Amino acid sequence: MSDKPIRTVPCPSCRGPSVYAESNRWRPFCSERCRSVDLGAWASERFRVPAETPPGEDDAAPPQH
């Protein structure tokens, strides 16, 4: 038997408790459903990493008269 306490973290999807251990195959998610919901959000671009416009990209457009 292990002396380690069971570590739980909030599930990133539903915010419910999720066991953070090798025994939880969906960690850090609490279930396969929550993992799939998160993956679907990334696939549909609901989650995005903000990016800055590279310098000079807006300057490349021809001037409008």
Element layout with pairings:
Layout: E1 8-10, E2 17-19, H1 32-43
Antiparallel strand pairs: 1-2
Features:
about 60 residues, alpha+beta, 1 helix, 2 strands, two-stranded antiparallel ribbon, Erythroid Transcription Factor GATA-1, Chain A, about 20% helix
Q: Going by CATH, what is the homologous superfamily?
A: Erythroid Transcription Factor GATA-1, subunit A
Shape: elongated
Would you list the SSEs in sequence order as H and E? EEH
Separate helix tally: 1
Assign the CATH topology.
Answer: Erythroid Transcription Factor GATA-1, Chain A
Mean pLDDT over the residues: 84
* Major β-sheet profile: 2 strands, antiparallel
In words, what does this structure look like?
The chain is α+β, with helices and mostly antiparallel strands. The chain has one domain: Erythroid Transcription Factor GATA-1, Chain A (2-Layer Sandwich), CATH 3.30.50.10. It is built from 1 helix and 2 strands. The model has no long low-confidence stretch (mean pLDDT 84).
